[in-house]
Design brief:
Layout (H helix, E strand, L loop, with lengths): L3 E4 L8 H10 L4 E5 L3 H14 L2 E6 L13 H20 L3 E4 L12 H17 L2 E5 L4 H10 L6 E6 H7 L6 H4 L3 E5 L22 H11 L5 E3 L14 H19 L3
Parallel strand pairs: 1-2, 1-8, 2-3, 3-4, 4-5, 5-6, 6-7
Helix pairs in contact: 1-2, 2-3, 3-4, 8-9
């Protein structure tokens, strides 16, 4: 049976230890976090281990990801930040780093500078024994390039973000193209309005979770059903307590797990 997971800081205002306790108390079996200092990353891994929660992935930095495709020092700094995320995975015993390839509607075109940097990242991940999972954003060409280029590499895979698919590329389906390389999931809901990336709980907006469940079920993926959601101020979760929100999140993930069970 697939584990149920959620991002460590889905509810703001809690430290790492408190957040881990909250997840454990609501039945979550796995989690992921952003990339922090190496020391903090190891401390989080130790906290989670004590709670019996699997530390599945780290989300590599992405705030200046387009610099990877640009010549100059900014691009080199961005590459070093991604390499540091891989190093943190190795230090903390996290098997997979989630990596974006671009950001925004007007992301740079694929070019030799970016190809060299992402190739360097993958080679470093190989040395560290870490899998780089490339996540779908707006540009099909970028993720197609990465997953086709490194198709035979056991240290490269696909992170399917079904919410991004809905709001960044409405009408496009990534799983028919890349399901054989699926190694991680980011699950959330939205209203499929372009660029409105709301990270709502499954079944609370308009994405087709019958299709999402079917594509997970038929992919052969047996890993964690990982929610990437946030309790934000305002509707529909602003008035909920942390306990109410996480209980609802777990119930939604449990319902999805039943839908993904193989016959």
């Amino acid at each position: 049976m697939r584990k149920i997971g959620i991002n460590l800081h889905s509810v703001k205002g809690y430290g790492d230890s408190e957040a881990a306790e909250l997840l454990a108390s609501h039945g979550f079996e796995a989690t992921f976090s952003d990339t922090y200092s190496a020391e903090r990353q190891v401390e989080i891994a130790e906290l989670l281990a004590k709670k019996g929660i699997s530390y599945d992935t780290l989300h590599a930095p992405f705030d200046r990801i387009n610099d990877m495709w640009r010549e100059g020092e900014d691009g080199e700094r961005m590459c070093e930040r991604l390499i540091a995320a891989v190093d943190n995975c190795a230090l903390a015993g996290v098997p997979t780093a989630i990596v974006h390839l671009s950001s925004g509607v007007h992301a740079p075109q694929i070019n030799d500078v970016g190809i060299a940097r992402f190739t360097r990242l993958v080679k470093h991940a190989e040395k560290k024994g870490v899998v780089v999972a490339f996540e779908n954003q707006r540009k099909l060409a970028n993720i197609s390039w990465a997953l086709e280029t490194f198709e035979a590499n056991a240290h490269v895979g696909f992170c399917w973000d079904c919410g991004h698919e809905g709001c960044f590329s409405p009408g496009r389906e990534y799983m028919p193209l890349f399901s054989s390389q699926l190694v991680a999931l980011h699950i959330h809901d939205n209203f499929a309005v372009f660029n409105e990336d709301r990270h709502m709980l499954p079944f609370d907006a308009s994405l087709d979770f019958e299709r999402i469940a079917r594509q997970i079920r038929t992919s052969g993926y047996g890993g964690t059903l990982m929610l990437e959601v946030f309790k934000k101020d305002g509707e529909p979760y602003g008035n909920m307590s942390a306990d109410e929100y996480l209980s609802r999140a777990y119930a939604a993930a449990t319902a999805l797990r039943k839908m993904t069970d193989n016959d």
